[in-house]
UniProtKB/TrEMBL annotation, chains A, B:
Catalytic reactions on record: a quinone + NADH + H(+) = a quinol + NAD(+); a ubiquinone + NADH + H(+) = a ubiquinol + NAD(+)
Name of the protein: NADH:ubiquinone reductase (non-electrogenic)
PANTHER family: EXTERNAL NADH-UBIQUINONE OXIDOREDUCTASE 1, MITOCHONDRIAL-RELATED, NADH DEHYDROGENASE
The organism of origin for this protein: Zostera marina (Eelgrass)
Domain of life: Eukaryota
Lineage: Eukaryota, Viridiplantae, Streptophyta, Embryophyta, Tracheophyta
Cellular localization per UniProt: Mitochondrion inner membrane; Peroxisome
Top-tier EC class: oxidoreductase
Statement: the UniProt record of this protein carries the keyword Metal-binding: yes
């Protein structure tokens, strides 16, 4: 009875706090749109300060430090109940960028400013309990639980702008950098397409190529050289950029540079046999055929071995080495590890890996209270075979040395939660129950009556671990991980008492949280000319103008704020009416 | 009779051409908005080619080379009948920038891309008879009638991208650069505000200052230092930037950086006694009072003598030297001469001057077929006193050695055209006729009956040359000069036969064209907080919210294209609804 009373007091207090928070948010919004800002805001601020500092002393909040303002970090912060923690965000970029639209930024279809949202605006919406430092973290000291940072801009700062931040929980969401595979000359001569600045540079560079090719006294050879655009890497980013560039050239630039339009060539270099290999074969084929019709040269089976300022050297198993002169090159062959993550991996005994390994709860292995998500981490799913004897022991409640189907059914829920590959395997074989699995591995099994020993149990589960696959390094994964982790942090206290996770196989009791599960919502591959290929859940494929409109609506709805949503939509409309902008800025 | 017939044939032909031209423009517009561009455009292009190449061989067109794509160059090109000449434009910027909105770009109120229009779009609208080279002209060889140019980007080019272009007529419209008065450290440590790139850099720099000041472990002193924004120069640009920055800070940034908002300081340093001295005293006073209310520190009478990376050293006649630490400084003290203009001035015997001197028809003195307009040139108005004896001789038709009022009235129109200072003088003294001038200088004169000798004539006109004033270096002047010069070029052939200009005082016959006359349409000084001071023709002063709306409508209507007009208006609306963007890109 006392517990209920206390709980209802808490509820009432928190409700009051929440409504107060909403009230002050209202005031802030009013201040933003009203224009006569500061005074009104000051009121809202002090209201809020009163609301968040109750009269009884509260235990000091745990410090949560978030490294990075990309998809993972931002979605974590957006979904976190920031009143529970002392949150600090550290990133060299004070904004979140909607990266899937970067290829559109390269050709002026969408404006750079339309795809970014200041992280402080996002913090402001959460009530101001969060601090942000614009700095680069250069060392994670997990022993002393602190991170060392350096301002990106040294002017007027003491100690070169270096400082350290203590944490109780660390969220590493720093993303990745472009992977050059140590190919000589790439960093010096190629553009990447990971950051907003990259997209802006590519834009200027494309226009420079056209202006150069257009100068008087150039031979046709030189014009061709300047207007050869090479994209290395046939993944979604490279392909989308090639398509955007082709549209830009044929729809807008050709009219403005009629003297040189015939010299333009776009090439996509791919080391594998096909482009867009992560998509369904039908999409790959459609893309390759469309590119051929558009005159985009897709060179598969070519590996780039060197890049100079004038030519790209590549090799093919049949033809050997060739030098290809070019005007501009974009390198988009996947992601590599940031130096600080490499150092940290060495520190925690993960040296030699490509990205940080975490468990299914996004916790870095061998490292307490450090979480990693997004492109800088991967979940190393525990294998059933590694735990098979423990699982057997837990399931064998009567210690008979054999398992009845009843006993298996009792723990199957926990097993599927802990080892999602089991569920995936059942699904992929279109089996509904575990007994079907036994049927498959042992011939016709009379259900409920069978008793399994450990060998037979092992045999039944032998192939399930093949279902374990690394998640792709996409915005979708990062964003879902951020949301998941924020939820865990929001309910951490409750879960300490009433854990919701599966049975611990090694150890006793239950895991606190459900492990992270990725839900694939589909993927787009815009192919230019208002045509997009979409691979939706359930292997549903859609290609053409319809999915371009789906693309427009999904990307508009996924925008992080109403400002960017309006900006992106108005950029698109402007593109339709006036074409893309071709000024060199 | 034959002449009439020929003329009507010409009229019909030109009418046919014009309608054909309109037809192809219609097609081009359709192609732009339709999206499926190239083929349609090719049709339009060939139509046009047929229209502009009549069956009879035409004499080769004169080559007109335009240096610069600023206000003067662009307004010249826009208004030129490009079918009459072989036009080439040379500029390191392939776009026209609406410079009066640059201060708004610095604080994210308007987007950089919204204030620029690609020069090729402007060319395209004119039918494509114009060529553009993106290059820097580094030498004007007026003896051999050619200009030497260098591409701004050397990659993949022979001979370092250098080339030469021949001209028959050269239009120099290269503008000016910022004037540092050789103050040490300015170029290295200060921002300027002349180009779009400058505005973008200032924007990033403002945000960097806030991010730096916001870092942990900074003393209040250091925060203050980082958030001290200094504007050197109290002219319209500096004042408008100060006002924009103040609005940005108080309306948008203060909410996002609540920990540091109290440390912000904005100072305007002016060597003279007041800011905005080119405006009416009422505006100056209002601006100074408003800035004081806003907390903007206006320091008049201070001269900057040195800038280091941490402090600006300035001196005042009363207090002597002081060092003022700062976070960011913008240098806006007027315009200086570009090196190529200096070289050219030496070549044509104008060494030692600040800008190129032209005659009243914008022709560079001592230099045939070279015209200069905009900020790089100034009209050196011929003085009445220099020509007084010639004028007397021309007016004295009966060679009597004296002038009758009748004789003066006969040439007064030509005198006022050739020497606008005479008209200005009469206007400024509120005199309607020349005889009033005689009345003033000789007491009461009985009109029509008087005969003047040369001494009396000199005496009457003694003060008129004081009315000669250099035109301000504004967009308005440059734009009107471009329009004027284009008109001269358009009617050059007709004017060779039927000159419209005033009598030649030295030499015989008439000048071909009316000399350039500047028509002042008013000037704005936005002062922040949606208040603008406007000085309109006839000394009409308007200050406040009303003139801010006038500012909005004038600047929207003056945009060079519908695309930029829409972009600017939607940027303004976005600013009202969502505030300015504060991301560091």
């Amino acid at each position: 009875m006392r517990f209920t009373a206390a709980s209802s007091f808490f509820e009432r207090a928190s409700e009051a706090f929440r409504s107060n928070s909403a009230y002050s948010r209202l005031l802030v919004v009013f201040a933003v749109s009203g224009g006569g800002g500061v005074v009104v805001y000051a009121d809202a601020g002090s209201n809020h300060a009163i609301a968040s500092e109750p009269q009884q002393p509260v235990p000091s909040k745990k410090k949560v430090v978030v490294l990075g303002t990309g998809w993972a970090g931002t979605s974590f912060v957006k979904n976190l109940d920031s009143s529970l923690y002392d949150v600090q965000i550290i990133s060299p970029r004070n904004y979140f960028a909607f990266t899937p639209l970067l290829p559109s930024v390269t050709c002026g279809g969408v404006d750079a400013r339309s795809v970014v949202e200041p992280i402080r605006k996002i913090m402001q919406k959460k009530g101001g309990n969060i601090r942000f430092w614009e700095a680069e973290c250069f060392k994670i000291d997990h022993v002393n639980k602190k991170v060392l940072c350096r301002s990106t801009d040294e002017k007027n700062l003491v100690q070169n702008g270096e400082f350290s931040v203590d944490y109780d929980y660390l969220i590493i969401a720093m993303g990745a950098r472009a992977n050059t595979f140590n190919t000589p000359g790439v960093t010096e001569n190629c553009h990447f397409l990971k950051e907003v600045e990259d997209a802006q540079k590519i834009r200027r560079s494309v226009m420079d190529c056209f202006e150069r090719a257009n100068l008087p006294n150039l031979s046709d050879e030189e014009k061709k050289k300047n207007l050869h655009f090479i994209i290395v890497g046939g993944g979604p980013t490279g392909v989308e950029f090639a398509a955007e560039l082709h549209d830009f050239v044929s729809e807008d630039i050709a009219k403005l540079y009629p003297r040189v339009q015939d010299f333009v060539k776009i090439s996509v270099i791919e080391a594998g046999e096909h482009i867009l290999t992560m998509f369904d074969k039908r999409i790959t084929q459609f893309a390759e055929e469309k590119f051929q019709r558009d005159g985009i040269d897709v060179k598969t089976g070519f590996k780039v071995i060197k890049v100079s300022d004038k030519a790209i050297t590549m090799t093919h198993k049949d033809t050997g080495e060739v030098d290809v002169p070019y005007g501009m090159a974009v390198w988009s062959t996947g992601i590599g590890t940031r130096p600080i993550i490499m150092d940290f991996m060495k520190d925690v005994g993960q040296g030699g890996r490509r990205v940080l390994a975490t468990d299914e709860w996004l916790r870095v292995r061998q490292c307490d209270d450090v979480y990693a998500l997004g492109d800088c981490a991967t979940i190393s799913q525990r294998k059933v075979m590694d735990d098979i004897s423990v699982i057997f022991k837990i399931a064998d409640k009567d210690n008979s040395g054999t398992l009845s189907i009843k006993e298996i059914q009792d723990v199957l829920g926990d097993i599927c939660q802990r080892y999602p590959q089991v569920e995936l395997y059942l699904k992929s074989k279109q089996m509904k129950r575990f007994v079907d699995l036994l049927n498959e591995s042992h011939g016709n099994v009379k259900k409920e009556s069978i008793e399994l020993d450990i060998e037979k149990f092992k045999q039944a589960l032998a192939d399930v671990d093949n279902q374990v696959k690394n998640l792709p390094a996409t915005a979708q994964v990062a964003s879902q991980q951020g949301t998941y982790l924020a939820r865990c942090f929001n309910i951490m206290k409750e879960m300490d008492e009433n854990p919701e996770g599966p049975l611990r196989m090694r150890g006793s009791g239950r895991h606190r949280f459900q492990p992270f599960r990725y839900k694939h919502l589909g993927q787009f591959a815009p192919l230019g000319g208002e045509q997009t290929a979409a691979q939706l859940p359930g292997d549903w494929i859609s290609i053409g103008y319809g999915s371009q409109w789906l693309w427009y609506s999904v990307y508009a709805s996924k925008q992080v704020s109403w400002r960017t949503r309006l900006a992106v939509v108005s950029d698109w409309s402007r593109k339709f009416v006036f074409g893309r902008d071709s000024s060199c800025i």
